[in-house]
Amino acid sequence: MNKMSPTTDKLYEHDFVAWCEDTVAKLKSRELDSLDFDNLIEEIASLGRSERRELKNRLTVLLSHILKRRYVNSPENFRGWELTIIEQRRQIKNLLQDSPSLKPYLGQIFAGAYDDALEEVRFEYQRTEFPNTWQFDIEADALLAKTYWEE
Fold this sequence. Notes:
mainly alpha, 2 domains, 6 helices, elongated
């Protein structure tokens, strides 16, 4: 049974950093009876959601810039789009390296990320035709390396 003190609960509500420091200290000293388990569980669960949300956001940005680079005839913007593609790929690789269990999630979120990217580029470039579906391989290795605009 959780014997959390009222001050621990209040600490979480009023000073999150102090609550984190207090929780770490209690974990290190194995003071399990005084841990704020409800908030600790919530925070750990939110870390996973945050990582998944970041992956989807970065994938959406990556796809929108690949679409722009592939389908928008604007050579003066190519370099900027390519730099964004490089950066998003780097960040996605880092996320997957830190949390390999996110790799299958990439396939699960791909369609939604593509729809979001498509909505963005269609709004920005209304005179450009973009495909309704991704026309290429969706394997992580291809997404993170291939230059789709050179085909």
